[in-house]
User: Fold this.
Amino acid sequence: MKTIILSTLLGLVTAATMPATAQTIPQGSTVQVPGHALRIDLPAQPRYMLHEEFRQFAGAYDLSNGDTLQLRRAGTIMYARIGNQDEHRIVATGRNSFVALDRQLKVRIDHHDDGSVGGEVVMVVPARQLADGSTQGEHIAVLGSPSR
Assistant:
């Protein structure tokens, strides 16, 4: 912790003592700043996951929004469900990540050495009517930290 604080202070002192230089952009030019795009894409080639590998992910996880993520396997087919929504058929995209074939859900589950579980769920939230009468369109949301 001390190292982080010291390096931060040294960085601030260095930045304060350096002369400020402005960059000019030629007239009519544009600068594109890429943003973090939330996307749910299917892999070109799904990863085959053995029953034994999937067993460590099967079960229920509490999500940060209060919902529950459930992962299960029936034969060779894997499924995910959030709350009381419909099940989604999923495929593995990595050693600890999955995506729904209908592109409605993406899951990453991280098992830590101390026994805790973390990760991320990216899902499509359907359009809905709000209390003020307006409509919120379908959008992608991120839910963090699945835990058992």
Remarks:
- The helical segments are 2-17, 51-55.
- Strands lie at 59-62, 68-74, 77-82, 88-92, 97-100, 105-111, 117-125, 128-129, 135-136, 139-144.
- The chain is about 15% helix and 35% strand.
